[in-house]
Amino acid sequence: MRILLAGGTGVIGSRILPELVAAGHEVVATTRREDRLALLESLGACGVLLDVHDAERVAATLTEAAPDLLLHQLTDLSGNDWEANARVRREGTANLVAGATAAGVDRMIVQSITWVFPDGDTPATEDDPIVPGTAVGVMEGLARRLPRSTVLRYGMLYGPGTWYAPGGRIAVAVSAGQMQANPAITSFVHVDDVVAATVQSLDWPDGIYHVVDDEPAPATEWLPVYAAGIGAPAPQPVPLPEGAPVGRAVSNAKARAAGWTPAHPSWRTGFPRPRG
């Protein structure tokens, strides 16, 4: 299969790329930084410089690449600028879909997230409605304009290269005592399991899939375990402010039924372990 990987140098894209090449796929991978083109080439791809907000260049890239599949792994989180990331989801995805349509590319797989549901007492499935009016909802809706689309809603990523790795943004905050053990629920997933699910999804039926581990948990449970694993002070449990969202657990039953089995079924065994 010929694949255009939009976002080939990110935490996920850079790990997916060699797996796709090893599986025999021909990959054209994009980056917005010229100094990362060599990395893409070293991983086995044809590297292309691309700013997803340049609609004309996006369309030209898709026409030139003529892929069988557009794999959308673009984010913009390096500067902790949430609006920049939302813009990628709204405007960048719109450009990708428009370019794919013009180039006759009829299939897209897109990275999404699972913390998009209103509070609820039961694990959310792919059939449950998400919070309306978000950039995530816009992105997913745009992807569904193509004849074939798969939305992979990843849980909170942890593992090498993520914010939860030693020295990462969350690790630093927890070590400084800046995070609170409150009842808000998180569904985690190890980055290696995300890579495996994404590669496997090339053979799944089109649709939405939740890629999370088996144990959604409140911060009162997972944060003390994580803090101990990185040698940080034990966080104190605190209540959420009145009216603050608690979040909702997310089910991975559909992805499991499609054949995905996480190597790290729980953050309890995937998080760093205390030394000694």
TrEMBL record:
Region (Disordered) spans which residues?
Answer: 255-276
> Which is one Pfam family of this protein?
Epimerase
The portions of this protein that span the membrane are none
Cross-referenced InterPro entries: Epimerase_deHydtase (IPR001509), NAD(P)-bd_dom_sf (IPR036291), NAD(P)-dependent_oxidoreduct (IPR051783)
The NAD-dependent epimerase/dehydratase domain, residue ranges: 3-207
Spell out the protein name for this chain. NAD(P)-dependent oxidoreductase
Protein source organism? Pseudonocardia alaniniphila
